[in-house]
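User: quick one
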Amino acid sequence: MSADVALSTRLGRAKRLRRLAEAATGWGLALPAAVLMLALILIPTASAALLALTDYQLGARRVSFIGAANFVEMWRDRVFWQAFANTLIYTALTVPLSVGLGLGAALLIEADPTGRTAFRTIYFLPVTALLVAMATVWEFILHPQLGLVNVALRQIGIAGPDWLASPDWVLASLGFIFVWQQTGYNMILFLAGLKGISPELYQAARVDGADRGVERFTMVTWPGLAATTLFVTVITTLYSFRVFDTVAALTQGGPSNASNVLLYNIYREGFVYLRTGYASAMTLVFLALILMVAMVQMRARRGHSA
Amino acid sequence: MASLEIDGVSKRYGDNLILDGVSVDVPDGAFLTLVGPSGCGKSTLLRILAGLELQDAGSLRIGGHEVSHLRPSRRDIAMVFQSYALYPHMTVAQNIAIPLILRRLPLWQRLPLMARLLPQARSTLARIDAEVQAAMEMLGLTSLAERRPVQLSGGQRQRVALGRALVRQPAVFLLDEPLSNLDAKLRVHMRSEIAQLHGRLGTTFVYVTHDQIEAMTMSTHVAVMMEGRLLQVATPSEIYADPADLRVAEFIGSPKINVLPARVGADGTLTGVGLPVSGSVAAAPGTAVQLGLRPEHLILRRGGGRGTVSAIEDTGPERFVSLVLDASDAPVVARVAPDHCAGLRVGDDVSLAVLPGKALVFDHAGARLGFDHPAMTPGEFDHVR
Amino acid sequence: MSGGHRLGRLARAVRLVVLTIGAAVMLAPFIWGLAASFKPAAEIWSGSLRLLPESFHGWENYTAAFNRAPLGRFLVNGVIVCGGILIFQLIFAIPCAYALSKHRFAGRTVIFGAVLIGLLIPIHVTAIPLYLGFARLGLLNTYAALIAPFAISVFGIFLFRQFFAAIPDDLIAAARVDGFSEWAIIWRVVVPASWPAITAFAIFSVTSHWNDLFWPFIVIQSTDLAPPALGVVYFRRDESGVDFGPMMAATVIVTAPLVVAFLLAQRRFIDGITLSGVKG
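Assistant: Done. Structure below.
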C-alpha cells in the first residue's frame, strides 16, 4: 500500500516535471521569436497608432496629444486625397490587367506543349529582375523623343506622349511597369492552380457532352481556378497598394502629384517634411486598406467553402 | 533482456478513459502481442511503455526496475514505428548507427571534425561501425548501406527500422503495427522474419497489431484488449480454444464464431438452440446464456429439417456453408471440407450437430461459464468423417 | 488545360503568335538595356531602332559604370544584408515554428495569433516607429538598421510551421527514443527533412530583400552602405540621365546576379518567389 502511494507521488512528480519541461522547451524555442515579433512588429504598430494621435515632428523636443486632429487635417489635405485616389486608380488599372494577363498566359502556355518551358521562363524573368534597375530601362524605352516606344509610334504616324512626364499618362505608365513585372508571377500561380485540376474532370466533361473548349473552360477550368483567382487577385492588390520603388526612382510623385501614391506620400510627409505624427496617421489609413482586402478575402473564402 | 511487468496502468485524455487498469506480466524473452480493434488503447499502452506518454496511474517494471519516471532514451527500450520513422536525410548505415552514436559519443565529440581527430572517438566510431555492419548483415541490408530511405522498398525500410532498434541491444523491443504499411505478400514474409529474429535474439518483444493472424502466428503471449481493458492474456492456442470472454472469442478466429442464444434447462442442459448440444452448464436453470460455436466445430448433414442453406463459399481448401436454423433464425456458418456434402445447394435442407466438448458457453454479459460434457460415445460420429 | 486534347493547327499558330508577342514585351527591357550598355552615347541618343551597336562601346561603358559608382560595394552590401537577414530569420523562425507545430504549451495560440497578425503588417506600417527606435539607439545608417527589422519573419514561421506539421510525429518520437535532445531534433532531424521548404524560403527572402528599396531609402544615407536597389537610385541621381551607356551597364550589373541565378535554378526560384502564393 505505501509502495503504491510512493509510486503514485513519484509518478505525479514525473508528470508535473514533464509537463513543466514541455512548457519550458516550448517557450524556450518560441520565446526569442515571440520577443522579436513583439519588438519589431506589434509594438511598432501600436506606436504608429499612438503617434498618429500626436503632433510629433521628427527631432522635436515637445510632443502633445492632439486627438484626431491629424485625421481631420488629412480629410482636408488635397495632396493626401490625390495620393489616396492615385493608389486606388493605380490598383484598379493594374490588378485586372495583371490577373487577366497572368491567367491568359497560363492557359495559353498549358494549352499545348510547344515552347512551354521557354515561355514560362521568359514570362517569369521580370519577377526576378531588380525593379528600380529595370524601371531605369523602361524610362529609357519610354523617353519622349528617343525612346523605343515613341520612335516606333512615330513611324506609324502617331505622336506618342511624354509617358512619364504627362499628368494624364504617368500613372498608366508606372502601372504598365507593374503589370510587366506582376504578370509572370500571377501566371505561375495560375499554372499551379491548373495543375491542381484533375484531368479526369475534363474527361468527365467531355463524356457529359462538353465538346467545345469554351464549355470545358466554363465547366471545369474556371470553377477549378476560383480559389486561385481569389488568392491571386488579393495578393496582386496588396502588391499594387505598395507601389513605391518606381515612383521614388522615376517620378518622385510628379508631375504635380499626378503619380503621388500613399506610400510615397507617407515617405515624404514623414521623412522629408519630418511630420512624423501626420505620416503615422496616413500609415493607419494604409493599414486599413490592407485589412479591408484581408477581410474581403476571408469572407469570400468562407462563402466559397460554404 | 528482461521481464516486463505492467501493473494497473490507466490513462485518460480529458473525459476519455483510454486505459483502465491494465496489468500484464511476461517473462524475459516473451513475445507479447497486444491485439484489439483500433481505438482499444493498445498503441497508447505501447507509447506509455516507451515513455513517449506518461500513465495517470500504475507502474511499469523492466527487468524488475521501475521505469515509469524515466525518459524514453533512458528506458533501455527500442521502438519500431508504424511509419518506420527513418531519418530521411541519412543513409541506411547512418540511420542504424545514430542511436549508438548518440549514446556513446559525448556531444563535443560528435562535432564534425572532432570525431576524426580524437583517437578515442575514432575507436568508438570503429566499434559502432562494426556493430552496424553486423546488424545490417543479420537483416540482409549490407548492399543497401549507402542508400537513403526514399530509395528503399517498404520491406527494406521495415528492415532498416528493425536494424536501428536491434543494434542497441535493448532490454525490450517495442513494435507498433510494423507490418500494416506492407502489402499482403510481404506482410506474410516479414511476419516470419520478425518471429525468427525474436528467436535468434531471445529479447522480450512487445508487438502491437490489429491483425489476429499476426498475433496468433508470432507470439508466445497474446493480450486481447478492448475499450481500454485487457480481456485475456494467454498463449495463442489458449486464446483460441479457451477464450475467457465472448468478445475475445468473437475477435479471434475467421470466420467469426457463431453465437446462438440459449437457455439453461432444468438439468443444466441447453435448450432453445435448435440443435442438440450435450453437456451441462454451471448456472441456475432458466438463465439466458450465449452459446459460441466455432465454424469448424459444426457437423453438417443433408436433410433432417433443422435449417436451410443460405450461401456457400468455396475457398479451395475448405468451404463455408451459411445456413439459417429453423429454431432460432440466427445465421450460422459451418466450415467443412470441400468435398463434404458435394452437390449441396442454396435452399437445401440440412441438419447440424456440434462436436462434443467444443461448445463454449458465455453468460449474458459475455463472461465464460463452465460447461461439462459427457464423454464421447465411440462410434457416435463415425458417419461424419 | 484541355486534358490531353490537342489543339487544331490554326489554334496552335494563334497561340504561338500571341505568346511570342507577349514574350517580346517581357524581354524588351532586358534586351534593349543590354544592347544600350554596349552603345556609345551618340548612338543611344540617335533615336534609331537598331538593336546591335554600330560601334562597340561596351568596355568603356562598363569601366565608366564601375568608376562612377561603387557597384561592387552595392553588390557586397546586398550580400551582407540579405545573408544577415536570412541567417537571423532561420535562427529565430525555425525553433519557433517547431515549437508551434510539435509542442503543446500554454501560450502557443497566443504566439500563433501574433504570427497571423504579423502576416498582415508590412514594413511600411512599422517604418516610422522603427526609424525612431533606431535613431534613438544611434543605429541609423548602419548594417544593423538594414538587417534588424527583418530578423524575424512571421511568414517564415507560418511556412515552416505548416511544413513541420507534415513531418510525422513518429519521426520525432523515434528521435526522442534514440536519445536526441529537442535542440538536436530541430537541427539534425527537422531541418534536414525540410530542405525544400528552407531553400524555397531562402530564395524568397533573398530576392525580396535584394529588391527592397523602401526601407534602405529611409535609413541609409551613405553610398557605402547602399544595397543594390538603393545603389541604383544613387547612381541615377548622380548621373542625371545624360550618359546613358554607363547607366545601362550599371543596371545590367546589379540585375544580373538574381537573373542569372534564376536561369540556373529555375524550378527552385519559381518555388521560392511564389512562396507567398502558398495558400494559408
